[in-house]
Amino acid sequence: MKNRINMIVRKGKVTGIILFYLFAFLPLTAQTAKQVLDKTAAVVSAKSGTQASFSIKGDQMSASGTIAIKGRKFHATTPQATIWFDGKTQWTYLKKNEEVNVANPSEAELAAINPYSFIYMYKNGYAYTLKKKGNNYEIHLTAKDKKRGIQEMYLLVNQKTSVPSQIRMRQKKGWTTISISQFKQANLSDGIFRFNSKDFPNAEVIDLR
């Protein structure tokens, strides 16, 4: 009887060790991915605003500049253009032509300009998984609806700060990569997210809405 009890105890210990290793190396769940995305969204969408530098590389396009964000609003500046978005209307000032295009952009168009648009996109219509990659989390988002402008996205987020450093998204024309650096919180006024014609008296305004 004693030997039988010892055998059961030994088997229990072995089973416990096996279960420990099984759970230790299981992939992180979709719920964990959502928690990381929620925390990242909270950091990026600080009420006072945030700022960062960025570079974009995609199909026949390349640009770099700075961006300021407050909620859904953003203001981006590159050597070629300046963009204002107040949450609904977008103004794009093209320096070479001295013209301003006014539009109500689509989700995909916003994502190609604003690297932080994912903080609203992931909450509706996307499935996601997560894995560790060095000191970062890599989150893979896939659209549930084949008609979505962005079908697939990879997001690289620092494990400690929850600040994103890279976003790769797949659109109809192929993959676009956005790298982010010098992220910081800032105190931004709402006025910087709307185009002011007085600052560009010689610009031709073209309404594309």
Write the layout of secondary structure elements.
Blueprint: H1 2-24, H2 30-44, E1 50-58, E2 61-70, E3 73-77, E4 81-85, E5 90-94, E6 99-103, H3 107-113, H4 118-121, E7 126-133, E8 136-143, E9 152-158, E10 164-171, E11 174-185, E12 204-207
Instruction: Please give the number of β-strands.
Output: 12
Radius of gyration over C-alpha positions, nearest whole angstrom: 23 Å
Q: What general form does the structure show?
A: globular
Strand content: 35-45%
Strand order of the largest sheet: 7-8-9-10-11-1-2-3-4-5-6-12
**Oligomeric state as shown:** single chain
Structural class: alpha+beta
Mean residue pLDDT: 84
Show unreliable segments.
Answer: 2-11, 19-29
Instruction: Outline the biggest β-sheet.
Output: 12 strands, mixed
How far apart, in Å, are the first and last alpha carbons? 85 Å
> Tally the helices: what do you get?
4
H-E order:
HHEEEEEEHHEEEEEE
Indicate the percent of residues in helices: 10-25%
Provide a concise account of the structure shown.
This protein is α+β, with helices and mostly antiparallel strands and 209 residues long. The chain has 4 helices and 12 strands, in the order ααββββββααββββββ.
Pick out its properties.
single chain; 209 residues; alpha+beta; 4 helices; 12 strands; globular; disordered N terminus
